[in-house]
């Protein structure tokens, strides 16, 4: 008895262009750029503009969760009034980069 295993001899595949191997990589890179990188850069620019626009009287929230009103402004440091105890106001100094959120209602209230 003579059995054949059904093996088919391998045939040489025709080679495609070298560019066709890079097409999936280029497509994945474009997808990452438009879905991840570009929106993140836009968000970062908005945050930087918001931080630069902080002025006295704005209500802000720090990355540590402190809520306060800006009472002093320098280039890199903000002085926040975070409340009062027994008639004395509590003020803390915070680096501008640590501000997470500025309340837009506080800006509208100052203009009126």
Q: Which helices and strands appear, and what pairs or packs with what?
A:
Elements: H1 18-52, E1 59-62, E2 67-73, E3 77-85, E4 88-95, E5 99-102, H2 104-111
Antiparallel strand pairs: 1-2, 1-5, 2-3, 3-4
Gist?
Helix content is 38%, strand content 29%. By secondary structure, the chain is an alpha+beta fold.
- The proportion of residues forming helix, as a percent range, comes to 25-40%
Element string (H = helix, E = strand): HEEEEEH
Task: Return the domain count.
Answer: 2
Q: Uncertain regions: pLDDT < 50 for 5+ in a row?
A: none
Q: Which architecture of the largest domain would the CATH scheme give at its second level?
A: Roll
Rg (CA only) = 30 Å
Number of helices: 2
CATH class of the largest domain: Mainly Beta
CATH topology of the largest domain: SH3 type barrels
> How would you sum up the major sheet?
5 strands, antiparallel
Distance between the termini: 101 Å
Q: Determine the strand fraction and express it as a percent band.
A: 25-35%
Please give the order of strands in the largest beta sheet. 4-3-2-1-5
Could you tell me the mean pLDDT?
86
Model description:
The chain has 112 residues and is an alpha+beta fold. It has 2 domains: 18-52; 55-111, Roll (SH3 type barrels). The protein contains 2 helices and 5 strands; from the N terminus they run H-E-E-E-E-E-H. It has helices at 18-52, 104-111; strands spanning 59-62, 67-73, 77-85, 88-95, 99-102. Strand 2 (67-73) and strand 3 (77-85) form a beta hairpin. The longest helix is centred in the N-terminal third of the chain and has 35 residues, at 18-52.
């Amino acid at each position: 008895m003579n059995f054949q295993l059904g093996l088919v001899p391998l045939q040489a595949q025709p080679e495609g262009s070298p560019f066709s191997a890079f097409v999936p990589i280029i497509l994945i890179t474009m997808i990452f750029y438009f879905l991840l990188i570009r929106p993140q850069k836009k968000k970062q620019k908005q945050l930087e503009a918001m931080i630069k626009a902080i002025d006295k009287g704005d209500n802000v929230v720090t990355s540590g969760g402190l809520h306060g009103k800006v009472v002093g402004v320098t280039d890199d440091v903000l002085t926040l009034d975070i409340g009062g105890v027994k008639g004395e106001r509590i003020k803390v100094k915070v680096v501008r980069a640590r501000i997470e959120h500025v309340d837009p209602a506080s800006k509208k209230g100052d203009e009126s």
